[in-house]
Amino acid sequence: MVNHYFFVGIGGSGMSGLAQILKTQKNFVSGSDRIYDREENQEVFHSLQRQGIVLHPQDGSGVIPPLDEVIISAAIEDNNPDLRKARNLSLPVTYRSSLLARLFNAARGIGVAGTSGKSTITAMAAKVMDDAGLDPTVLNGAIIPDYKKGGGLGNAKVGTSAYILVETDESDDSIVDFFPEISIVANISKDHKPLPELTGSFLRFAKNTKQTTILNADCQHLRKLMTQIPPRKIVSFGLNKDCQVKAEEVKQKASGSTFRINNTLFSLQVPGEHNISNALATIALGVTLKIPLEKIRDSLAMFTGIARRLELIDSVGGIRVFDDFSHNPAKIAAAVEALRPLRGRLIIIYQPHGYGPTKFLRHELIETFNTRLRAKDILILLDIYYSGGTVDNSVSAGDLKKEINVPRTEHLHDRKEVVRRAINFSKPGDAIVVMGARDNTLTTLARAIAETLKTTLPSRGGVEPSRIPFRPSDKTNAGRREGI
Fold it and tell me: Which of 35, 90, 249, 338 has a CA between 20 and 30 Å from the CA of residue 457?
């Protein structure tokens, strides 16, 4: 049966992934996005159109019966023109998370959860399952480079088996609607909601799991949660001596790490202890799926990472430029520690993610920068990411700056000035890291830094704004939060 779905905010990572899956399954899919109307981030929308997805202005004009469902995310406000039109026409309106849970629960679902690391775990698990011939349908919150080769965005794939592998979302509590066959919970830390609320959601997710729940025993909050789940359902992983899947003989370097499990040597191309933990979660899943340890080892050895997770944009004259999704304290801390083996200074360019999250995590963000960065490191704060709509904007990046003790901390508004200062600060051995979530112009910023380094590094006489490769649409941090 062919259905017609209309996505309001189709450019969001979760929305676009689900739209692509439904289109590949021979449904008719259309949608709108205010970023599309502003002619920004056109690569995403051109890819959707090439796949046969029809795009409309977000003014209500595309919401035309017959439509089986109008799909929205939790970020779509009640005054959205498309949503108002759908309700005026009494069309069925469904949250993205509810539609995804419906598809997930009808299949052999593998749900990946956690405050941090779930996108990487999902990508690692997809690699291991693909290589083992299990061919799952996959929906991820980040781009998997191998999945772009077929012409898609890279955040989704339709497989031929009954398995569906999904990165779940705890921010809107939709995680409790998923009933996995196998679940993974990577960690729990303060993000989106207070810890007691988050822990309760993850506990329900684990209890909803039909067969096996894979938990990180290195996380103190998950160790407490384990006492409330039948031991027969748990597979634990970590560096803890009591884990069932335990890494031993761990060795880390700037380019990756090695460790042993049951005398099998694993080698990772992605750095940091957090990626060792991500790999252990994936190994636990592979073992649960009865994939031989040697096959899991070979797949993980070939895994090169996903977009915007400490992604190396370029190395110019001994200066490395990274693009990174880190936006909450735990992610920032993990990224900083992963870069420590480089030994040079860190020049962190951080864009706080939204007024609400910045206010909620303000003290933890300040503490993270104060404890993780050294006196010689440099921190550049960008203006808070604003996606539009009615929000309480009573906090600013300048408020963070007042309480951060890193001697060289700056709050800059203009991105050309950010490029100029970052390059003029840098010297061989340093790492420049652009950090922030869901704003694709941050990748543009990282690339502009790398490109400008190439043209100015030989002289080291400083960079002039006229030599910085920006288009007018790249100068702001305007983005969107219309999907996950």
Answer: 338
Classify residue 131: in a domain, yes or no.
Answer: yes
Same domain, 381 and 467: yes
Q: How far is CA 328 from CA 222, 293, 437, in A?
A: 19, 33, 9
> Residue 237 — φ and ψ, nearest 5°?
-140, 160
Residues 465 and 337 in one domain: yes
Query: Does any domain span residue 118?
Result: yes
- pTM, entire model: 0.89
Could you list the residue range(s) of the whole structural domain that residue 27 is in? 4-95
Q: How far apart are CA 419 and CA 426, in angstroms?
A: 11
| Token pair in block for residue 446 | 């990282």
Q: Give yes or no: residues 124 and 221 share one domain.
A: yes
DSSP track, 105-159: HTSEEEEEE-SSSHHHHHHHHHHHHHHTT---EEE-SS--GGGGTTTS-SSEE--
Same-domain check for residues 61 and 27: yes
Domain boundary, last residue among 255, 271, 301: 301
Q: Are residues 147 and 264 in the same domain?
A: yes
Per-residue pLDDT of the chain (484 residues; tens, 9 = 90+): 789 999 999 998 899 999 999 999 999 999 999 989 988 878 899 999 999 999 999 999 999 999 999 999 888 999 999 999 999 999 999 999 999 999 999 999 999 999 989 999 999 999 999 999 999 999 999 999 999 987 889 999 999 999 999 999 887 788 999 999 999 999 998 777 788 888 899 999 999 999 999 999 999 999 999 999 999 999 999 997 789 999 999 999 888 999 999 999 999 999 999 999 999 999 999 999 999 999 999 999 999 999 989 999 999 999 999 999 998 898 999 999 999 988 899 999 999 988 888 998 999 999 999 999 999 999 999 999 886 666 778 899 999 999 999 999 999 999 999 999 999 999 999 999 999 987 888 999 999 999 999 988 655 555 554 555 554 344 444 333 333 3
Which CATH number belongs to the domain containing residue 352 in this structure?
3.90.190.20
